[in-house]
Amino acid sequence: MRSGTACDSTTPRTGCADFLGGLGARRAHVLRTVMIAAPASLAVELLLWPFLGASLSAATLGWGSASGVASAAAFALLYRTLAMGPMNVLSPVTALVSAALPVGVGLLQGEHLAASGLVGLPLALAAVVLVSAGHGAGSVRPSRTALLSALGAGAAIALQLIFLHQAPSGSGVAPLIVGRAVSSAVTLAAAGLMHRKLGSERPAYTMSAAAGVLDSVANLLFLLAARSEDLAVVAVITALYPAGTVLLARCVLAERIHRGQIVGLGTAAVAVGLLALT
Questions:
Q1: pLDDT per position as a tens digit, 223-265
Q2: Which of 31, 106, 144, 208 has CB atoms 3.0–4.6 Å from 232's, for a disulfide?
Q3: Of 266, 277, 211, which Cα lies nearest the Cα of 240?
Q4: Three-state SS for 172?
Q5: Cα angle at 216 between 214 and 218, to 5 degrees?
Q6: Residue 172: strand pairing partners
């Protein structure tokens, strides 16, 4: 079980995708952003089909479709959450939930961890808590609505990861293609039903499309890693992505990073190293 490299690669790319999606959702209704991000993500996976293959079966269609519904909810809730801000608090809160649920499922399914994993797993969870806990002087506190949205986004992300992990290992990129097709259809249907409430603001097309492309790459890396590694380990490493979001929010939006978050980022780096040795 040595998929640490693939797991590590999901962290900054997902953080960057979420940052771009959240920033784009500040310019227009979140559904307008997702209407671009989800199809862009599907396009990437279709382009990868000839290279990685795709095998459709009843199980692949079922788990892929389930992940697609969860993905549509995750897109909308996460981008809405990050649009409300502050990103440097809400992104880690979302990640904590998205890590905890798959860990519980993995352990219930009988997964076992090596010694380094037994140390690295709780250390990684602690890192997520440190990055999200407390507020420095002058920091903006998230509203109750934003926190509830973050919890919902985390649960949706967790379900998406769990469903993808359940898909047959020999199905190639089929679960991702099915999932993105379903999420795109759900998003477009929701936008059609709510078109009068979407407002007239135009979305940030390039930013939204880039968020979808990066999210697609991150999901592909998760799927490849999950096929050769325990769900608990892969989900926790994936949940360290707020490091990228927090740093981008600091550099681009000038959001404050307090001392606890800096300790959390360092702890995350140690945890990733230990989990890569599992």
A1: 877 777 667 667 766 666 666 666 666 676 666 667 776 787 6
A2: 106
A3: 266
A4: strand
A5: 70
A6: 54
Is residue 69 within 8 Å of residue 190, measured between CB atoms? no
Question: How far apart are the C-alpha atoms of 84 and 89, rounded to whole Å?
Answer: 11
- Read off the pTM: 0.72
Closest CA to 71 of 207, 163, 199, 198: 163
Residue located via tokens 């920091």:
139
Question: Residue holding tokens 């009843």?
Answer: 58
SS in 3 state form for 204-227?
CHHHHHHHHHHHHHHHHHHHHHHC
Burial code of 155-188, b = ≥16 C-beta within 10 A, e = fewer?
Answer: bbbbbbbbbbbbbbeebbbbbbbbbbbbbbbbbb
Question: What tokens appear for 205 in the block?
Answer: 């097309």
Which stretch of DSSP H or E encloses residue 50? helix 30-52
Burial class (CB in 10 A: 0-12, 13-18, 19+), 200: exposed
H/E stretch holding 76: helix 58-84
Q: Would you state the structure tokens that stand for residue 46, as one six-digit string? A: 């279709």
Measure the CA angle with vertex 116, ends 111 and 118; round to 5°: 50
